[in-house]
From TrEMBL:
Stored PANTHER family: HYDROXYMETHYLPYRIMIDINE_PHOSPHOMETHYLPYRIMIDINE KINASE THI20-RELATED, PHOSPHOMETHYLPYRIMIDINE KINASE
SUPFAM superfamilies the record matches: Ribokinase-like
Location of the Pyridoxamine kinase/Phosphomethylpyrimidine kinase domain: 32-269
GO cellular component: cytosol
Name of the protein in its database record: AER226Wp
Keyword Kinase assigned: yes
Organism, as annotated: Eremothecium gossypii (strain ATCC 10895 / CBS 109.51 / FGSC 9923 / NRRL Y-1056)
Length: 316
């Protein structure tokens, strides 16, 4: 007779601690075969925030942190069928978008309209991979309509400059001005990610401009980490913010917590990267699983020097 191994039930205290509901996030984005960005990064991030991830894959990419070698777009009828089924049969609390094809933009706009979606939409206007490989162009009227429909748009500096046909800012004040200009142009909230800017040299500034917030722009300042492994940071940040918004956080708190998640995912990477490339690699989405107390933030070895012109982050 074979050995019988009994599987234990969850402990009573764990059963009592079950949540009554689980927030859901739909991500509409491209697939990254290396797992560091796109749909794969979104699923990991959403799951690490205790939310349920659903997907609509706009395109399949042959991609690593070094380059995007090939892209195959999902046909519009399949995109429409995926979205139709999700909105029909699943609860969709928040939506995050990443790499979008023209067909994905059209299908998503139609789904938002047909199903009267009223939850938060976070649009990461992905135009190129972190390796520099071009992906999509969001200059068309349909894409602009989607950007204006968003609760938050999260461009980096090159993307913001492209959307506005503007020159890169030359100072922290210029970063704030660029974020304000894009928020005015789109009539929606903008989080301008400053990781591409070399100033200040030991800090990264992200600027949130929310037209609905009378307090004005908020600049979040994080220590600039010395690592090449930042593949998928934009996808991860937008997904984290969408997950936080699905939990009914305020926009400022959702952004603040999202930036912390990405900062720690970069800082707490394994000593040996999963990527064989020295020039780029993914962040560690599951870093919190290795912490004895995930709620305890690690202290930085040194504080970032934020410029006086940057608006300080108020306590939440």
């Amino acid at each position: 007779m074979p050995e019988i191994v009994h599987i234990p039930d969850p402990a009573p205290q764990h059963l009592r601690a079950r949540p009554r509901t689980q927030p859901t996030v739909l991500t509409v984005a491209g697939s990254d075969s290396s797992g560091g960005a796109g749909i794969e990064a979104d699923i990991k991030t959403i799951t690490m925030h205790g939310c349920y991830a659903m997907t609509c894959i706009s395109a399949i990419t042959a991609q690593t942190p070094r380059a995007v070698d090939a892209v195959r777009a999902t046909p519009a009828p399949l995109l429409a069928a995926v979205l139709r089924g999700l909105f029909r049969d699943m609860a969709v609390d928040a939506i995050k978008t990443g790499m979008l094809t023209p067909a994905a933009v059209d299908c998503l706009l139609a789904a938002l309209r047909d199903h009267r979606f009223a939850g938060p939409l976070v649009v990461d206007p992905v135009m190129a991979a972190s390796s520099g490989s071009p992906l999509t162009d969001l200059a068309g009227p349909a894409a602009r309509a989607l950007l204006r429909r968003a609760a938050l748009v999260t461009p980096n500096v090159p993307e913001a400059c492209r959307l506005l046909a503007a020159q890169p800012p030359a100072s922290p004040d210029g970063l704030v001005s660029l974020a304000q200009a894009l928020a005015r142009d789109l009539s929606t909230a903008v989080l301008l990610k400053g990781g591409h800017c070399p100033y200040p040299p030991d800090a990264v500034l992200d600027v949130l401009v929310d037209p609905a917030d009378p307090a004005g722009p908020v600049t979040f300042c994080a220590r600039r980490l010395s690592t090449p492994h930042t593949h998928g940071t934009g996808c991860t940040l937008a997904a984290a913010i969408a997950a936080n918004l699905s939990r009914a956080m305020s926009l400022r708190e959702a952004v603040y917590r999202g930036i912390i998640f990405v900062h720690h995912a970069i800082a707490l990477q394994p000593e040996r990267s999963v990527c064989a490339l020295p020039e780029n690699g993914p962040v560690h989405h599951a870093y919190a699983l290795n912490l004895s107390s995930p709620a305890t933030a690690p202290e930085a070895s040194r504080k970032a020097t934020c410029p006086d012109t940057a608006t300080p982050t108020p306590p939440l």
